[in-house]
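LAB NOTEBOOK - FOLDING QUEUE
OPERATOR: T.R.
BATCH SIZE: 2
PURPOSE: Compare the predicted C-alpha cell outputs for two unrelated chains run back to back under identical settings.
PRIORITY: normal
REVIEWER: second-year student, initials M.K.

ITEM 1
FIELD SEQUENCE / FIELD STRUCTURE:
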Amino acid sequence: MPPRAPDRRPTLADVAARAGVSTALVSIVMRDAPGASTATRDRVRRAAEEIGYRPDSRARLLRSSRSRLLGVVFGVQHPFHGDLVSGLYAAAERAGYELALSAVTPGRDERRAVAGLLQDRCEALVLLGPSSPTAALADLAAHLPVVVVARSVRSAAVDVVRTADDEGMRLAVEHLIALGHHDVVHVDGGRAPGAAERRRGYREALGAARLTPRVVPGGLGEDDGAAAARDLLAGSLPTAVTVFNDRCALGVLDVLRRAGRAVPEEVSVVGYDDSRIARLTSVDLTSVAQDVDRLAALAVGRALDRLDGVPVERRELVVPPRLVVRSTTAPPRPRDVVERPSCRVPP
C-alpha cells in the first residue's frame, strides 16, 4: 500500500488496502450490516484501528435523510437564554442529537437566525422566547417541528414549553405581602414574551390581598429598569418592587442605590428568571426561578416526539416556578425611620 499523506484523513479505501479486502466489504463492516464473516469483521476493524480510521457519522447522516441536528434560536442579550442553551445541550446529548445555534443580535433579526438553521438541515427548531408573530411561527411549523420555549403561542401547529409566569409573579407578590409590604409596584415587560402573564399574576395577587396595583413601564434590559426607577423616585416611592426580569431589575437596583436609597431597608426588589445575574454575590437578587433543566428536557423531548410521530396529548407543557429569596427583600421599615430628603437622581 502506498504511503498516505500525513495530513490526509484515512478513508474506507485505506482500510480496505490495509485489510486486503474490497472497499464494499469495509463499508459493510463499518455499517454493521450483514454480509461479512466474524473473522473478516475482526480483520477490518483491526486495520481501521491501526491506521486511525474513524467513521464520519455526519457524512453518513447527510447521505441519509437525517442530520440529528436540533436548531436553536436564542437572544444573545438575554442571560436566561444562555442558561437554557446549556440545558438544551445536555438534553440533546442524552438523546444522541447535536445543537446548531443561531443568535438574534441587535443587527441580526429572528428571521435571519431561523434561515441560517434551515440551511444547516436541522430536523427541528427550538425557539427561545421568539418575537415572531403567531402566523409566522405556524407557517414555519408546517415545514418542520417547532418548539417554542418561554412564550405562549395560540396555534395548534406550534408546540410550547413554558413556565407558569403568572404563578411566578404571584409567588413574588405573596412573598412581599407576607413580609408586610402593602405598596408594591410592578415594573412591566411591555410586549415581551411572558410579560402579559407576569403582569396578570401581579394584579391577581394584589387583588386577592385587596391592595391597589400600580404598573410602571419597563422592558427587557438594564436601561429600561433604570428609567423605571427614575420615574418611581420622582413620585411616591413604594416599599417594594417586582420587576419583569433580572436584567431590568439590575437597572432598578443601580439607580436606587446611586440615589442613596437603601435596598432592602427602604425598597425591596424582586426579579424574574433567577439568571446568572441574580446569583452574583454583588447582586444577590431575590428572583423567581424557572426550572431550566426541566424546560430544556421537555423541549428536546417534544421535538423528538414530533420527529418520531409519537402522539401528543397536550400542545402546551407548563412548568411550575419557584421563588429564590436572597438579600434584596426584607420587611418594610416605618417611613418615619427611613424617610429622608429627596436625592438627586443620576441622569
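ITEM 2
FIELD SEQUENCE / FIELD STRUCTURE:
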Amino acid sequence: MDINISKSLQVLRREKGNTQEELANYLSISIQAVSKWERAEGYPDITLLPKIAAFYGVTVDDLLGVGELRKRDLIKNYRTRAIELHGLGMVPDAVQVWREALAEFPEDHEVMSELARYLYEEFTKTKQPESLHESIRLCEKILAKSTDQEMRNFAINYLTAFYKALGDHKKSMEFAEMGGSIYHSRDFLVSEAAYDDEVIYAHYFTGEKITGDQWRKSAIAEFAEILVHVLDYTNTVDQLTRHEFTLNMLKLLYSDGFYGEAARRAANSHYHCARIYAERGDEKKTREHLEGMVRFAKQYETLPQEFMFKSPILNGLKRYNEVPPSRKWSEHYLKRLTEEGYDCGVFDRFREEGWFRRIVEELEGRK
C-alpha cells in the first residue's frame, strides 16, 4: 500500500493553520525532524503516530492516508457500477448510483463532478431543466470550494457546456474565458518542461509514472482530440470535410490501424461520411465508410482494460480503461442502419446488396 504521510502532514498543517514548530514542540522533537517528514525524507517513529493524530484531531488511518485510499476504492466501485449501467443505456440508474455516492461522501468534489456529468447526460435525453440546474449547482460548488486546479478545470469545462445548453451564452462565455489558452495548458507546459526523456514524472490525471517522452506522446493524442472537437463546432466547414479530415488525421496518428479509444470517433466519422455519400448515390464510397464504421466499432468494443500503442508517433504510450466498453456500439449503428427513427431510408437503394446485408449481419453478431 502506498502511504504518503508527508502529503497528509502538509494538508493537515494548512487546514489547522499551525506551524511545523508547533507540532515539533508538542512532540518534544526538533523542527528539522518535522520538516524532513513533510519533504518525505524520513518518517515519524511509529510510537509518535497516535500523538500526531491526536494533535490534528484525526485517526492514525487518516494520518497515513489509509482512510483516503479506502474512500478512493469505494468511489472506484461506484464508477464501475455507473459505467456498466450507462453501457446498458440506463442513464437514470447511473445517476442514482452517483447520488448514493454523494450521500456517502457529501463533500467529495470528484463525486460531485461525476454526478453533474451524468445529470447533464440525463438532461440531453429528457430535456428536463431540473437535471441541468442541479449539474450547475454542483459545479459552482466545486469551483467555489476546490483548491485542486484539475478539478476546477473540470468544473469550468462543464459550466461552459451547461450554460450553453441553457441558451445563456453570456454566462457560458464567462466560464469559457476562465480557461487558459492551449499554450498555457498543463500538457503544453509540462511537455516543454520535461526536458529529459528518461526522467520519471507522475501524470497529473492518472498518477501513472511516465517519462518525459511518454508525456509528450500523451499530449499529442490529446491535442489531436481537441483539434477534431473544435472542428466539429466550426459551422463554416461542411460536414463531409470535417469528418474526412478527422479520419485522415487519425489514420496518420494511428498508422498501424489500432486506434484505442479513438476508434469510437473513427466509427462515428465513417458513419456520417457513409450517410453523405449514400445521399449522393456513391455506392463505392458508402460501402467503404460503412465497412470502416463496423471495423472501428468492433475495435472499440473489444478494447482491453490496458493497452499500448505501437504506431510510430505514439509508440510505447499506455492507456487504461477501468471498465471495458460494452457491445452497445454495434447495436447503436445497427439501429441507425435499420430503424426508421434514425433516417435509415438514405441507405434504401443499397439495402438488397450483398455487401450491405453482410454489414447488418456483422452488426447483429451473426458473422
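REVIEWER COMMENT (ITEM 2): The radius of gyration is 25 Å.
FOLLOW-UP: none requested
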